[in-house]
Design brief:
500 residues; alpha+beta; Cytochrome p450; 5-stranded mixed beta sheet; 19 helices; binds protoporphyrin IX containing FE; heme; Cyt_P450_sf; metal-binding
Length: 500
Protein backbone atom coordinates (compact mmCIF):
# COMPACT_ATOMS: atom_id res chain seq x y z
CA UNK A 1 0.00 0.00 0.00
CA UNK A 2 2.81 2.39 0.87
CA UNK A 3 4.29 1.63 -2.51
CA UNK A 4 1.02 2.58 -4.20
CA UNK A 5 0.89 5.81 -2.21
CA UNK A 6 4.44 6.66 -3.25
CA UNK A 7 3.61 5.91 -6.84
CA UNK A 8 0.59 8.14 -6.69
CA UNK A 9 2.56 10.95 -5.08
CA UNK A 10 5.02 10.78 -7.92
CA UNK A 11 2.11 10.83 -10.32
CA UNK A 12 0.70 13.93 -8.60
CA UNK A 13 3.92 15.83 -9.05
CA UNK A 14 4.32 14.97 -12.70
CA UNK A 15 0.69 15.37 -13.62
CA UNK A 16 0.61 18.73 -11.87
CA UNK A 17 3.68 20.03 -13.64
CA UNK A 18 2.21 19.08 -16.98
CA UNK A 19 -1.19 20.50 -16.09
CA UNK A 20 -2.02 23.49 -18.25
CA UNK A 21 -4.22 26.30 -17.05
CA UNK A 22 -7.15 26.62 -19.46
CA UNK A 23 -7.03 29.37 -22.06
CA UNK A 24 -9.97 31.31 -20.69
CA UNK A 25 -8.39 31.27 -17.25
CA UNK A 26 -4.97 32.40 -18.49
CA UNK A 27 -6.63 35.51 -19.93
CA UNK A 28 -8.06 36.42 -16.53
CA UNK A 29 -6.24 37.84 -13.58
CA UNK A 30 -4.77 35.02 -11.49
CA UNK A 31 -5.68 35.62 -7.86
CA UNK A 32 -2.58 36.34 -5.82
CA UNK A 33 -3.20 33.68 -3.27
CA UNK A 34 -3.79 30.91 -5.76
CA UNK A 35 -1.05 28.41 -5.05
CA UNK A 36 1.14 28.71 -8.13
CA UNK A 37 3.00 25.80 -9.68
CA UNK A 38 6.15 27.13 -8.00
CA UNK A 39 4.96 26.99 -4.44
CA UNK A 40 2.72 23.99 -5.10
CA UNK A 41 5.63 21.69 -4.39
CA UNK A 42 6.27 23.42 -1.08
CA UNK A 43 2.60 23.09 -0.20
CA UNK A 44 2.50 19.43 -1.14
CA UNK A 45 3.86 18.13 2.15
CA UNK A 46 0.91 19.74 3.85
CA UNK A 47 -1.44 17.93 1.55
CA UNK A 48 -0.33 14.40 1.25
CA UNK A 49 2.58 12.89 3.13
CA UNK A 50 0.83 13.15 6.47
CA UNK A 51 -1.64 10.60 5.13
CA UNK A 52 -2.46 8.39 8.02
CA UNK A 53 -3.55 4.83 7.68
CA UNK A 54 -6.07 4.65 10.44
CA UNK A 55 -7.97 1.40 10.48
CA UNK A 56 -7.97 1.38 6.74
CA UNK A 57 -9.13 4.99 6.56
CA UNK A 58 -6.88 7.33 4.65
CA UNK A 59 -6.88 10.69 6.29
CA UNK A 60 -5.57 13.29 3.95
CA UNK A 61 -4.57 15.55 6.82
CA UNK A 62 -5.03 18.75 4.97
CA UNK A 63 -4.33 21.35 7.57
CA UNK A 64 -6.69 23.86 6.11
CA UNK A 65 -6.49 26.14 9.11
CA UNK A 66 -2.75 26.38 8.59
CA UNK A 67 -3.17 27.01 4.86
CA UNK A 68 -5.80 29.68 5.45
CA UNK A 69 -3.46 31.41 7.93
CA UNK A 70 -0.85 31.51 5.17
CA UNK A 71 -2.96 32.29 2.09
CA UNK A 72 -6.09 33.92 3.55
CA UNK A 73 -9.66 32.59 3.60
CA UNK A 74 -9.78 31.91 -0.18
CA UNK A 75 -7.01 29.70 -1.52
CA UNK A 76 -6.26 26.88 -3.91
CA UNK A 77 -5.00 23.38 -3.31
CA UNK A 78 -4.35 20.60 -5.79
CA UNK A 79 -5.71 17.13 -5.19
CA UNK A 80 -4.02 15.02 -7.79
CA UNK A 81 -4.21 17.24 -10.82
CA UNK A 82 -7.54 18.69 -9.74
CA UNK A 83 -7.55 22.37 -8.79
CA UNK A 84 -9.75 23.05 -5.75
CA UNK A 85 -10.61 26.46 -4.31
CA UNK A 86 -11.17 26.32 -0.56
CA UNK A 87 -13.43 28.83 1.18
CA UNK A 88 -12.40 28.94 4.81
CA UNK A 89 -14.55 31.21 6.99
CA UNK A 90 -18.18 32.05 7.64
CA UNK A 91 -18.14 35.29 5.60
CA UNK A 92 -16.62 33.55 2.58
CA UNK A 93 -18.88 30.48 2.70
CA UNK A 94 -22.00 32.63 3.15
CA UNK A 95 -20.99 35.13 0.46
CA UNK A 96 -20.36 32.32 -2.05
CA UNK A 97 -23.23 29.94 -1.31
CA UNK A 98 -25.90 32.53 -0.54
CA UNK A 99 -25.02 35.94 -2.06
CA UNK A 100 -23.54 34.40 -5.24
CA UNK A 101 -25.68 31.27 -4.97
CA UNK A 102 -26.25 30.69 -8.69
CA UNK A 103 -22.57 30.79 -9.60
CA UNK A 104 -21.56 28.44 -6.78
CA UNK A 105 -24.45 26.00 -7.27
CA UNK A 106 -22.57 23.53 -9.51
CA UNK A 107 -21.56 20.11 -8.20
CA UNK A 108 -17.81 19.42 -8.19
CA UNK A 109 -16.34 16.36 -9.83
CA UNK A 110 -15.80 13.25 -7.75
CA UNK A 111 -14.56 10.53 -10.08
CA UNK A 112 -16.04 7.59 -8.19
CA UNK A 113 -19.43 9.26 -7.78
CA UNK A 114 -19.44 10.22 -11.45
CA UNK A 115 -18.65 6.66 -12.41
CA UNK A 116 -21.54 5.35 -10.32
CA UNK A 117 -24.20 7.98 -10.99
CA UNK A 118 -23.21 8.93 -14.55
CA UNK A 119 -24.55 12.42 -13.82
CA UNK A 120 -28.08 11.13 -13.06
CA UNK A 121 -30.09 11.77 -9.86
CA UNK A 122 -29.90 14.73 -7.48
CA UNK A 123 -26.60 14.81 -5.63
CA UNK A 124 -24.16 14.56 -8.54
CA UNK A 125 -26.17 16.14 -11.32
CA UNK A 126 -25.92 19.65 -12.69
CA UNK A 127 -27.89 22.20 -14.70
CA UNK A 128 -31.52 21.73 -15.69
CA UNK A 129 -31.56 18.05 -14.66
CA UNK A 130 -30.48 18.90 -11.12
CA UNK A 131 -32.99 21.78 -10.84
CA UNK A 132 -35.95 19.62 -11.92
CA UNK A 133 -35.06 16.58 -9.81
CA UNK A 134 -34.20 18.61 -6.72
CA UNK A 135 -37.42 20.64 -6.90
CA UNK A 136 -39.42 17.41 -7.31
CA UNK A 137 -37.71 15.72 -4.35
CA UNK A 138 -38.28 18.73 -2.09
CA UNK A 139 -42.00 18.99 -2.88
CA UNK A 140 -42.52 15.25 -2.67
CA UNK A 141 -40.80 14.97 0.71
CA UNK A 142 -42.91 17.89 1.94
CA UNK A 143 -46.16 16.47 0.50
CA UNK A 144 -45.76 13.16 2.25
CA UNK A 145 -47.16 14.97 5.24
CA UNK A 146 -50.46 14.81 3.33
CA UNK A 147 -50.59 11.04 2.79
CA UNK A 148 -52.17 8.48 5.06
CA UNK A 149 -49.37 8.84 7.54
CA UNK A 150 -47.39 12.04 8.12
CA UNK A 151 -43.61 11.96 8.12
CA UNK A 152 -43.75 12.77 11.83
CA UNK A 153 -45.94 9.71 12.48
CA UNK A 154 -43.61 7.52 10.43
CA UNK A 155 -40.66 8.67 12.57
CA UNK A 156 -42.57 8.17 15.83
CA UNK A 157 -43.60 4.68 14.76
CA UNK A 158 -40.00 3.74 13.91
CA UNK A 159 -38.67 5.28 17.14
CA UNK A 160 -41.07 3.03 19.09
CA UNK A 161 -39.67 -0.05 17.29
CA UNK A 162 -36.17 1.15 18.16
CA UNK A 163 -37.09 1.61 21.83
CA UNK A 164 -38.41 -1.97 21.95
CA UNK A 165 -35.20 -3.23 20.39
CA UNK A 166 -33.13 -1.35 22.96
CA UNK A 167 -35.34 -2.65 25.78
CA UNK A 168 -34.57 -6.17 24.60
CA UNK A 169 -30.86 -5.64 25.28
CA UNK A 170 -31.83 -6.12 28.96
CA UNK A 171 -29.15 -3.74 30.19
CA UNK A 172 -26.45 -5.69 28.35
CA UNK A 173 -23.72 -3.74 26.52
CA UNK A 174 -24.25 -3.16 22.79
CA UNK A 175 -22.85 -1.15 19.90
CA UNK A 176 -25.62 1.26 18.80
CA UNK A 177 -24.45 1.47 15.16
CA UNK A 178 -26.73 -1.17 13.66
CA UNK A 179 -29.95 -0.44 15.61
CA UNK A 180 -29.67 3.28 14.78
CA UNK A 181 -28.86 2.63 11.11
CA UNK A 182 -31.83 0.25 10.80
CA UNK A 183 -34.25 2.71 12.39
CA UNK A 184 -33.12 5.69 10.33
CA UNK A 185 -33.04 3.71 7.05
CA UNK A 186 -36.51 2.41 7.71
CA UNK A 187 -37.87 5.97 7.88
CA UNK A 188 -36.48 6.80 4.45
CA UNK A 189 -37.66 3.35 3.20
CA UNK A 190 -41.16 4.16 4.36
CA UNK A 191 -41.06 7.44 2.39
CA UNK A 192 -39.54 6.08 -0.83
CA UNK A 193 -40.76 2.46 -0.92
CA UNK A 194 -44.05 2.97 0.95
CA UNK A 195 -43.36 0.76 3.95
CA UNK A 196 -40.84 -0.04 6.63
CA UNK A 197 -39.06 -3.40 6.74
CA UNK A 198 -38.93 -5.82 9.63
CA UNK A 199 -35.50 -5.62 11.35
CA UNK A 200 -34.97 -9.31 10.49
CA UNK A 201 -35.97 -9.00 6.79
CA UNK A 202 -33.11 -10.45 4.73
CA UNK A 203 -33.58 -8.05 1.80
CA UNK A 204 -33.47 -5.07 4.18
CA UNK A 205 -30.38 -6.39 5.96
CA UNK A 206 -28.59 -6.87 2.62
CA UNK A 207 -29.58 -3.36 1.55
CA UNK A 208 -28.19 -1.79 4.72
CA UNK A 209 -25.06 -3.93 4.55
CA UNK A 210 -24.34 -2.74 1.01
CA UNK A 211 -24.88 0.91 1.97
CA UNK A 212 -22.69 0.61 5.09
CA UNK A 213 -20.00 -1.20 3.10
CA UNK A 214 -20.02 1.49 0.44
CA UNK A 215 -19.81 4.27 3.05
CA UNK A 216 -16.80 2.56 4.56
CA UNK A 217 -15.18 1.88 1.18
CA UNK A 218 -15.68 5.47 0.05
CA UNK A 219 -13.83 6.60 3.18
CA UNK A 220 -11.09 3.99 2.62
CA UNK A 221 -7.61 4.75 1.35
CA UNK A 222 -8.18 3.51 -2.17
CA UNK A 223 -11.74 4.85 -2.31
CA UNK A 224 -10.53 8.38 -1.58
CA UNK A 225 -7.54 8.06 -3.86
CA UNK A 226 -9.80 6.99 -6.71
CA UNK A 227 -11.31 10.48 -6.70
CA UNK A 228 -7.94 12.07 -7.28
CA UNK A 229 -6.34 9.51 -9.62
CA UNK A 230 -9.22 7.81 -11.46
CA UNK A 231 -7.36 6.72 -14.58
CA UNK A 232 -4.57 5.06 -12.66
CA UNK A 233 -6.86 3.54 -10.05
CA UNK A 234 -8.99 1.81 -12.67
CA UNK A 235 -6.01 -0.50 -13.22
CA UNK A 236 -5.40 -1.20 -9.52
CA UNK A 237 -7.46 -3.99 -7.93
CA UNK A 238 -8.86 -3.24 -4.50
CA UNK A 239 -11.91 -2.38 -2.43
CA UNK A 240 -12.81 0.59 -4.65
CA UNK A 241 -13.84 -1.98 -7.28
CA UNK A 242 -16.24 -3.44 -4.65
CA UNK A 243 -18.08 -0.10 -4.45
CA UNK A 244 -18.97 -0.42 -8.10
CA UNK A 245 -20.22 -4.00 -7.63
CA UNK A 246 -22.26 -3.07 -4.52
CA UNK A 247 -23.81 -0.11 -6.31
CA UNK A 248 -24.96 -2.32 -9.14
CA UNK A 249 -26.69 -4.60 -6.60
CA UNK A 250 -28.41 -1.59 -5.03
CA UNK A 251 -29.53 -0.40 -8.47
CA UNK A 252 -31.07 -3.81 -9.22
CA UNK A 253 -32.91 -3.76 -5.87
CA UNK A 254 -34.45 -0.37 -6.66
CA UNK A 255 -35.30 -1.41 -10.24
CA UNK A 256 -37.22 -4.41 -8.86
CA UNK A 257 -39.16 -2.12 -6.52
CA UNK A 258 -39.94 0.23 -9.42
CA UNK A 259 -41.32 -2.71 -11.39
CA UNK A 260 -43.52 -3.78 -8.45
CA UNK A 261 -44.77 -0.20 -8.06
CA UNK A 262 -45.63 0.06 -11.77
CA UNK A 263 -47.77 -3.09 -11.54
CA UNK A 264 -49.91 -1.72 -8.71
CA UNK A 265 -49.83 2.01 -9.49
CA UNK A 266 -52.98 4.06 -8.86
CA UNK A 267 -52.48 7.40 -10.64
CA UNK A 268 -54.84 9.20 -8.27
CA UNK A 269 -53.25 7.93 -5.08
CA UNK A 270 -49.43 7.97 -4.82
CA UNK A 271 -48.22 5.83 -1.92
CA UNK A 272 -44.62 7.00 -1.81
CA UNK A 273 -41.74 8.76 -3.63
CA UNK A 274 -41.51 6.09 -6.36
CA UNK A 275 -45.24 6.34 -7.14
CA UNK A 276 -45.04 10.14 -7.26
CA UNK A 277 -42.10 9.91 -9.68
CA UNK A 278 -43.89 7.37 -11.91
CA UNK A 279 -46.92 9.67 -12.07
CA UNK A 280 -44.66 12.58 -13.04
CA UNK A 281 -43.16 10.37 -15.79
CA UNK A 282 -46.69 9.74 -17.15
CA UNK A 283 -47.53 13.45 -17.08
CA UNK A 284 -44.35 14.41 -18.91
CA UNK A 285 -44.51 11.68 -21.56
CA UNK A 286 -44.93 14.23 -24.38
CA UNK A 287 -42.15 16.50 -23.12
CA UNK A 288 -38.93 15.70 -24.96
CA UNK A 289 -36.88 17.75 -22.44
CA UNK A 290 -38.25 15.91 -19.41
CA UNK A 291 -35.75 14.60 -16.88
CA UNK A 292 -38.33 12.23 -15.44
CA UNK A 293 -37.15 8.86 -16.74
CA UNK A 294 -36.31 5.48 -15.18
CA UNK A 295 -32.58 6.18 -14.81
CA UNK A 296 -33.19 9.42 -12.90
CA UNK A 297 -35.88 7.70 -10.81
CA UNK A 298 -33.48 4.94 -9.74
CA UNK A 299 -30.62 7.36 -9.03
CA UNK A 300 -32.77 9.88 -7.13
CA UNK A 301 -34.17 7.05 -5.01
CA UNK A 302 -30.66 5.76 -4.28
CA UNK A 303 -29.48 9.32 -3.53
CA UNK A 304 -32.21 9.84 -0.95
CA UNK A 305 -31.54 6.43 0.54
CA UNK A 306 -27.79 6.87 0.62
CA UNK A 307 -27.77 10.51 1.83
CA UNK A 308 -30.57 9.85 4.29
CA UNK A 309 -29.17 6.83 6.12
CA UNK A 310 -25.58 7.24 7.28
CA UNK A 311 -25.80 10.96 8.00
CA UNK A 312 -28.60 10.99 10.57
CA UNK A 313 -27.67 7.69 12.21
CA UNK A 314 -24.02 8.74 12.63
CA UNK A 315 -25.14 12.04 14.19
CA UNK A 316 -27.35 10.15 16.65
CA UNK A 317 -24.59 7.64 17.44
CA UNK A 318 -22.13 10.46 18.11
CA UNK A 319 -24.79 12.30 20.12
CA UNK A 320 -25.30 9.31 22.45
CA UNK A 321 -21.53 9.07 23.01
CA UNK A 322 -21.40 12.77 23.95
CA UNK A 323 -24.27 12.31 26.41
CA UNK A 324 -22.45 9.32 27.95
CA UNK A 325 -19.53 11.64 28.64
CA UNK A 326 -21.74 14.35 30.19
CA UNK A 327 -24.34 12.64 32.44
CA UNK A 328 -25.24 16.04 33.96
CA UNK A 329 -26.33 17.27 30.50
CA UNK A 330 -28.29 14.04 29.96
CA UNK A 331 -29.99 14.58 33.33
CA UNK A 332 -31.15 18.08 32.32
CA UNK A 333 -32.63 16.69 29.09
CA UNK A 334 -34.45 13.99 31.13
CA UNK A 335 -35.91 16.71 33.36
CA UNK A 336 -37.12 18.74 30.39
CA UNK A 337 -38.70 15.68 28.73
CA UNK A 338 -40.48 14.74 31.98
CA UNK A 339 -41.79 18.29 32.42
CA UNK A 340 -42.97 18.90 28.83
CA UNK A 341 -43.82 15.44 27.46
CA UNK A 342 -44.22 13.21 30.52
CA UNK A 343 -43.97 9.42 30.28
CA UNK A 344 -47.35 8.44 28.88
CA UNK A 345 -47.18 9.72 25.29
CA UNK A 346 -44.52 9.92 22.54
CA UNK A 347 -42.67 13.22 22.04
CA UNK A 348 -43.88 15.22 19.01
CA UNK A 349 -42.51 18.14 17.04
CA UNK A 350 -44.83 20.62 18.76
CA UNK A 351 -42.93 19.91 22.00
CA UNK A 352 -39.66 21.26 20.64
CA UNK A 353 -40.47 24.95 21.06
CA UNK A 354 -41.05 24.32 24.77
CA UNK A 355 -37.78 22.41 25.15
CA UNK A 356 -35.03 25.02 24.66
CA UNK A 357 -32.39 23.03 26.54
CA UNK A 358 -32.91 19.84 24.49
CA UNK A 359 -32.99 21.91 21.31
CA UNK A 360 -29.70 23.55 22.29
CA UNK A 361 -28.13 20.16 23.07
CA UNK A 362 -29.16 18.83 19.64
CA UNK A 363 -27.80 21.92 17.85
CA UNK A 364 -24.57 21.63 19.82
CA UNK A 365 -24.28 17.92 18.91
CA UNK A 366 -24.57 18.79 15.21
CA UNK A 367 -22.14 21.71 15.56
CA UNK A 368 -19.60 19.66 17.47
CA UNK A 369 -19.90 16.57 15.29
CA UNK A 370 -19.26 18.66 12.15
CA UNK A 371 -20.46 15.69 10.11
CA UNK A 372 -19.51 16.83 6.61
CA UNK A 373 -16.51 19.11 7.28
CA UNK A 374 -15.93 20.25 3.69
CA UNK A 375 -19.55 19.82 2.53
CA UNK A 376 -19.99 17.93 -0.73
CA UNK A 377 -17.75 19.50 -3.42
CA UNK A 378 -19.29 22.40 -5.31
CA UNK A 379 -18.18 23.88 -8.64
CA UNK A 380 -18.63 27.31 -10.19
CA UNK A 381 -21.07 27.28 -13.09
CA UNK A 382 -19.27 30.09 -14.99
CA UNK A 383 -16.09 32.19 -14.69
CA UNK A 384 -16.83 33.78 -11.36
CA UNK A 385 -15.59 37.01 -9.80
CA UNK A 386 -15.32 36.41 -6.10
CA UNK A 387 -13.92 39.23 -4.04
CA UNK A 388 -10.68 40.25 -5.78
CA UNK A 389 -10.32 36.87 -7.53
CA UNK A 390 -11.54 35.13 -10.61
CA UNK A 391 -12.44 31.47 -10.34
CA UNK A 392 -12.57 29.75 -13.74
CA UNK A 393 -15.78 27.94 -14.80
CA UNK A 394 -15.91 24.34 -13.61
CA UNK A 395 -13.36 24.79 -10.80
CA UNK A 396 -14.14 22.60 -7.80
CA UNK A 397 -14.92 24.54 -4.61
CA UNK A 398 -14.81 23.20 -1.04
CA UNK A 399 -16.99 25.36 1.22
CA UNK A 400 -15.36 24.48 4.56
CA UNK A 401 -18.40 24.07 6.81
CA UNK A 402 -16.01 23.20 9.65
CA UNK A 403 -14.62 26.76 9.54
CA UNK A 404 -18.16 28.06 10.19
CA UNK A 405 -19.24 25.50 12.80
CA UNK A 406 -15.99 25.92 14.73
CA UNK A 407 -15.61 29.70 14.40
CA UNK A 408 -14.39 31.03 17.76
CA UNK A 409 -15.96 34.48 17.17
CA UNK A 410 -19.39 32.83 17.48
CA UNK A 411 -18.58 29.80 19.62
CA UNK A 412 -15.98 30.55 22.27
CA UNK A 413 -13.83 27.43 22.77
CA UNK A 414 -15.32 25.74 19.67
CA UNK A 415 -13.54 22.46 20.37
CA UNK A 416 -15.51 22.05 23.61
CA UNK A 417 -19.03 20.62 23.80
CA UNK A 418 -21.21 23.27 25.38
CA UNK A 419 -25.02 23.57 24.87
CA UNK A 420 -24.61 27.15 26.16
CA UNK A 421 -23.50 28.02 22.62
CA UNK A 422 -27.20 27.93 21.70
CA UNK A 423 -28.78 29.41 24.87
CA UNK A 424 -29.19 33.04 25.91
CA UNK A 425 -28.74 34.34 29.47
CA UNK A 426 -32.39 33.48 30.29
CA UNK A 427 -32.03 29.89 29.15
CA UNK A 428 -34.05 30.51 25.96
CA UNK A 429 -32.92 28.88 22.70
CA UNK A 430 -30.58 31.17 20.73
CA UNK A 431 -30.32 30.81 16.93
CA UNK A 432 -27.01 31.22 15.17
CA UNK A 433 -26.17 32.10 11.57
CA UNK A 434 -23.09 29.93 12.03
CA UNK A 435 -25.18 26.77 12.42
CA UNK A 436 -24.55 25.28 8.99
CA UNK A 437 -24.21 21.47 9.22
CA UNK A 438 -26.58 21.12 6.25
CA UNK A 439 -24.60 23.66 4.21
CA UNK A 440 -26.42 26.71 2.76
CA UNK A 441 -27.79 28.22 -0.43
CA UNK A 442 -29.11 26.45 -3.52
CA UNK A 443 -27.52 23.08 -2.77
CA UNK A 444 -28.49 23.01 0.92
CA UNK A 445 -29.32 19.48 2.07
CA UNK A 446 -32.65 18.29 0.65
CA UNK A 447 -33.29 16.24 3.79
CA UNK A 448 -32.67 18.99 6.38
CA UNK A 449 -36.27 19.10 7.63
CA UNK A 450 -36.52 15.32 7.78
CA UNK A 451 -33.14 14.90 9.49
CA UNK A 452 -33.94 17.50 12.15
CA UNK A 453 -37.26 15.81 12.92
CA UNK A 454 -35.56 12.40 13.09
CA UNK A 455 -32.82 13.57 15.45
CA UNK A 456 -35.27 15.34 17.79
CA UNK A 457 -37.89 12.57 17.91
CA UNK A 458 -35.49 9.61 18.13
CA UNK A 459 -33.21 11.18 20.74
CA UNK A 460 -36.07 12.36 22.96
CA UNK A 461 -37.83 9.01 22.61
CA UNK A 462 -34.67 7.17 23.72
CA UNK A 463 -34.11 9.51 26.68
CA UNK A 464 -37.79 9.42 27.67
CA UNK A 465 -37.44 5.66 28.09
CA UNK A 466 -33.83 5.05 29.16
CA UNK A 467 -30.86 6.31 31.11
CA UNK A 468 -27.58 5.82 29.26
CA UNK A 469 -24.78 3.94 31.02
CA UNK A 470 -21.15 4.07 30.00
CA UNK A 471 -18.89 1.02 30.31
CA UNK A 472 -15.92 3.23 31.14
CA UNK A 473 -15.39 6.25 33.36
CA UNK A 474 -17.07 9.16 31.49
CA UNK A 475 -13.88 11.21 31.95
CA UNK A 476 -12.04 8.67 29.75
CA UNK A 477 -14.53 8.89 26.87
CA UNK A 478 -13.01 10.50 23.81
CA UNK A 479 -15.76 12.30 21.90
CA UNK A 480 -13.53 13.78 19.17
CA UNK A 481 -14.47 12.49 15.72
CA UNK A 482 -12.08 10.24 13.83
CA UNK A 483 -10.37 12.71 11.50
CA UNK A 484 -11.61 12.74 7.93
CA UNK A 485 -12.14 15.09 5.03
CA UNK A 486 -15.26 13.24 3.92
CA UNK A 487 -17.58 12.35 6.81
CA UNK A 488 -16.70 12.55 10.51
CA UNK A 489 -17.60 9.47 12.55
CA UNK A 490 -17.21 8.81 16.29
CA UNK A 491 -14.78 6.22 17.60
CA UNK A 492 -16.44 2.80 18.08
CA UNK A 493 -18.03 2.28 21.49
CA UNK A 494 -20.56 0.26 23.44
CA UNK A 495 -23.15 1.36 26.02
CA UNK A 496 -25.94 -0.03 28.19
CA UNK A 497 -29.41 1.42 28.49
CA UNK A 498 -31.38 1.17 31.69
CA UNK A 499 -35.20 1.59 31.59
CA UNK A 500 -36.38 4.67 33.53
C1 LIG B 1 -27.76 14.91 10.02
C2 LIG B 1 -28.17 14.63 8.82
C3 LIG B 1 -27.67 15.26 7.55
C4 LIG B 1 -26.64 16.12 7.33
C5 LIG B 1 -25.66 16.72 8.35
C6 LIG B 1 -26.63 16.40 5.91
C7 LIG B 1 -25.72 17.25 5.30
C8 LIG B 1 -25.69 17.50 3.94
C9 LIG B 1 -24.72 18.34 3.29
C10 LIG B 1 -23.59 19.10 3.98
C11 LIG B 1 -25.00 18.32 1.97
C12 LIG B 1 -24.22 19.03 0.86
C13 LIG B 1 -24.83 20.37 0.56
C14 LIG B 1 -24.03 21.15 -0.45
O1 LIG B 1 -23.76 20.64 -1.53
O2 LIG B 1 -23.62 22.27 -0.12
C15 LIG B 1 -26.16 17.49 1.77
C16 LIG B 1 -26.75 17.24 0.54
C17 LIG B 1 -27.84 16.42 0.36
N1 LIG B 1 -28.55 15.75 1.34
FE1 LIG B 1 -28.16 15.79 3.32
N2 LIG B 1 -27.63 15.71 5.30
C18 LIG B 1 -28.32 15.00 6.27
C19 LIG B 1 -29.43 14.19 6.08
C20 LIG B 1 -30.07 13.98 4.89
C21 LIG B 1 -31.28 13.19 4.71
C22 LIG B 1 -32.08 12.53 5.83
C23 LIG B 1 -31.54 13.19 3.36
C24 LIG B 1 -32.67 12.48 2.63
C25 LIG B 1 -33.86 12.78 2.62
C26 LIG B 1 -30.53 13.98 2.70
C27 LIG B 1 -30.47 14.22 1.35
C28 LIG B 1 -29.55 15.04 0.72
C29 LIG B 1 -29.50 15.26 -0.72
C30 LIG B 1 -30.43 14.65 -1.76
C31 LIG B 1 -28.44 16.15 -0.95
C32 LIG B 1 -27.98 16.71 -2.30
C33 LIG B 1 -28.57 18.10 -2.52
C34 LIG B 1 -28.18 18.70 -3.87
O3 LIG B 1 -27.17 18.31 -4.44
O4 LIG B 1 -28.94 19.57 -4.34
N3 LIG B 1 -29.65 14.44 3.65
N4 LIG B 1 -26.58 16.99 2.99
Amino acid sequence: LNFILLLLLQFTRSSRSSCRISRSFSELEIPPNFVSSVNFISTLPLLVPRSVLNKNILVLCINLLQLSAKYGPVFTIYLGSQRVVVLYGQDEVKEALIDQGDEFSGRGKLALADKLSKGAGIIFSNGERWKQLRRFALTTLRNFGMGKKSVEERIQEEARFLVERLRNTNKRPFDPTIPLAHAVSNIICSIIFGDRFDYEDQKFLTLIKLIEENNELLRSVLGQLYNFFPTLMDYIPGPHQEVIKNSEELRIFVLERVKMHKESLDLSCPRDFIDAFLIKMEQEQQNGQSEFNTENLVRSTLDLFFAGTGTTSTTLRHGLLILLKYPDIEEKVHEEIDRVVGRSRSPCMADRSQMPYTDAVIHEIQRFVNLVPMSVPHAVTRDTHFRQYVIPKGTTVFPALQSVLHDSREFPKPEQFNPGHFLDENGAFKKSDFFMPFSAGKRICVGEGLARMEIFLILTMILQNFTLKSLVDPRDIDIAPQPSVVVNVPKPYQLCVSPR
